[in-house]
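Supplementary notes for students who missed Thursday's class. We covered one full example, reproduced here. Read the sequence, then the structure, then the short commentary at the end.
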Amino acid sequence: MLLWIIHDQMMVLVGDCSDREEGAADGLISFSINGHKELCAIHKPGGVSISVPVILQASALASSRASMLHQLLAESLRTLEERVKADRLARLEVLRKVHQLGLRSIIKKAESLPSANEKNKSTSVGVDRDDPMLAWGTPHSSHINQDSLKS
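Structure (token representation):
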């Protein structure tokens, strides 16, 4: 978007204006230019009149700006595509390494571990989950009314 400010009979064109600049403008004109430097649309909402030579000058400025922006966008997309490709290759490499380790070795390790039933039968030093004193439903001795114990 370009705007123009008329001051002492001199016109100043401002490209990609800020809100403050837009508020001080005497008129606005927007150009839509594609990546092939083709003018697709012009929009001039009201404001003071503008001459044809100034419109042509503004169009040339907008075209050079659009060309630079399209180039910047293409470079950014190329960089993003390279990063996505590198990330994808890294993830595939991790999957290849996991596959090389072999699922068979993982399955053998899992089969060698004792099942849940075998764990309960073994005499381990761990906590017995079936112990009634550890159950949440069993009241703790500190919650028992001491007067009821005396009678």
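Commentary. The mean pLDDT is 76. Helices lie at 19-24, 52-101, 103-112, 116-121, 146-150. If anything here is unclear, bring it to office hours.
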